[in-house]
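Lay summary

Proteins are chains of building blocks that fold into shapes. Our project writes down both the chain and a compact code for its shape. Here are two examples, one after the other.
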Amino acid sequence: MSQFGRELQSVAFLIVRNHADAEEVVMDTLITAWRRAGDLRDDRALRTWLLRIATRHALSRRRRQHWTASIDLADSMPASRSNQPSADRLVVAEALSKLPPKMRAAVALHHYAGLTVPQVAGVMGVSHNTVKSNLRDGMARLREDFSAPQADAAGPGSRSGA
């Protein structure tokens, strides 16, 4: 728990978007891991194995909408090395919360947990191509969300005349 607990909870939270649900996912993950400890054949795969269990528990949990989800999500995201302003973190959190759960899981596992595409595929129990599609579509949606305010901010004076 001391080694992987925070990461498990953060990934779970990015998927379920609720702190209480994320805590339950972590507890369910630990119980499952304890019961199935004999299934782990390679101790070096412990992190990926735990992330797989947590992701499956998170995806199977009923999602509830909470008006504080985007703020809570931003708080759970690690601060970047460049000390990214919290307003930017809120924008990222809001955009992530709009993604479908499986797409959000793929983005969280790949970009937050740093898993490779094959590792994400193994964790989620899907093909490499499914992960690639989820990442491609998720990142496209995030780019749209980030570019929309910039396009609006350009204003009418920025357009070329007809």
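And here is the second example, written the same way.
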Amino acid sequence: MRIAVTCLAAFSVGMSLAWSQEATTQEDLRQGHQLAAMFCGNCHLAAPDQPNEPVLNPPAPSFASIAQRKGIDPGSLQKFLATTHRGLDKPNGMPYPNLADYQVKQVIAYILSLRK
């Protein structure tokens, strides 16, 4: 009987952890979508429902097209977002987004969710 209770308790803890990770993932996607539309939408078509069109003409690559690129994974996106792409040699390069680490992870989760 004790073994059955122990197994049931372990199973329920495992299920609740899996559920909370899924809930966190869905929340990360929602937050990443919101951050992308708010901060990245000035230059990129970050989300189809973003409130304003990009001001760049032509706009920077859309997040949907970035998600389809070969070699795009969480690590490459993390590295790209952690470096500055604007300087004397590229005055119109992408500015450093200045997002917190957890926000970068949310934006990355959102971009990767756009893969087809």
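What can we say about the second shape? The helical segments are 2-40, 63-68, 74-81, 101-113.
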